[in-house]
Amino acid sequence: MTALVGAVFIVIVIGLITVAFRKPKPPSNRPIPQSLVQSPFEEVERQVDALRRQVVDGTLSEEQCEAQMRELMIQDAQGTWWMVGYESGAWHRNDGQGWVRAEPPR
Question: Among residues 106, 85, 99, 102, which one has the least CA distance to residue 43?
Fold first, then answer.
């Protein structure tokens, strides 16, 4: 009986070592479905919503919220800067002269 337990133990240990040192499989070349990919603009919108909830809850002042929203500016592939307006909640792009309300690329 002891020999059988010892043999089973050795098989289990060898199996664990084999799994531990196995090379990871390369990632699949299949693209990730677009429905699962969140755009950077959507992520900023999610963070802005969270900041606004904190203002409503009283855990963040409007000034603190505005300052944190300025940190959420995002630059698109063409180099254009975008931000969500604090009062309007709408997207604005910087046209080189100021902020203009516009829809960001998605």
Answer: 106
- Reference 52, options 22, 89, 23, 79; nearest CA is 89
Please give the average per-residue pLDDT across 32-53, as a whole number: 81
Residue-wise pLDDT for 58-67, tens only, equals: 999 999 998 9
Long-range pairs of 54-63 with CB within 8 A, sequence gap ≥ 24: 62/86
40 token code pair? 């950077």
- Is 2 strand, coil or helix? helix
What pLDDT was estimated at residue 96?
93
Read off the pTM. 0.61
**φ, ψ of residue 95 in degrees (nearest 5):** -95, 10
Q: So where are the chain's domains?
A: 39-101
Residue-by-residue DSSP string for 39-55: PHHHHHHHHHHHHHHHH
